[in-house]
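Appendix B. One record, verbatim.
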Amino acid sequence: MNWLHNQIKNLDEDISSVVFCDVSENEKAFPVSKLICLNENHSVLINKIIRKSGLGKWNFPLLHAIREEDVTIVHSHFGHTGWENMFAVKKENARHVVTFYGADVNYLPQNNSKWYSRYATLFENVDLVLAEGPFMRESLIALGCPSKKAVIQHLGVEVEKIPFQPFTSSPNEPLRVLIAASFREKKGIPYALEALIKCMEIPMEVTIIGGASKDRNSQAEEQKIQALAGKLGDKVTFSGFVSYQELQKQMLEHHIFLSPSVTASDGDSEGGSPLGITEACASGLFVISTDHCDIPNVVIHNETGLLAPERDSDTLAEHIRWFVEHPEKVQQMLQASRKHIEENFNAKRQGKKLSQIYRSLI
């Protein structure tokens, strides 16, 4: 979760952070000043049962950690984690901030009604609830979060580490399209492929980064993707999951980032906006996406990229053709896209804003 590490490492220097987790991996790749694994000296199963059942007042590892580290503010990431932590945080008289990210906003309550009452309790007891953008903020208010507690806090990317290399076309060069996402319904990959099939007259190379999980729905989505990709023949290359560094490299080698997210049939959605879109905008990739959740807050239609209605492969295809036919306008939009990310989604700026949010609670 590079996006989460960015939030921690870009806080002001006078803010001391302690990371509480269940398990730890790749600690060298994501260094923090202090990390405490709550399950280190306790039963993982017992702790999980206590948290999931809402018996947080007996969440002794968290209670002990808050007390021993003299924690002033607990920042819980994901709404369900905030609810699981809520009782321990309250018992220790710490302030509590919870950030929602997507499935916790809509999928959980829509598929399990108990989360409506759980969130009602959380919103009553939490100090602030952070949302990636205006759409998610309104969704949280609709769930019962008081508007005064709902605050927009963008997820930032390290813009200074992302090279800005907008495409330069050359004669007879094929259009290179990048699709990068897990194979889940909400990512809308089949609609991206349908749009590309409608543009077969354009010489193109399509790279698909990502793959399916063991989940049955994800496996079904992979079958749809493979079937549609087959219609594009040798124009498509599947790269599987790649490292973050390789993904950034691929972004610099393509012209279009096609990412048409949708609301899934089970209610799952992006909630905010995929961070991959933000990084693509910063790198000089031309983003074609949908008016889904908070994506329009990152990709401004007709100014920094192009958006289509959800599940509208015809409009996506029109946008692809427009890109090919208007190279000069595209260059202007790419410059505007980079500037928009630098000003509004810069990890350093967002770190300072989060620092100010913490200070407002002390």
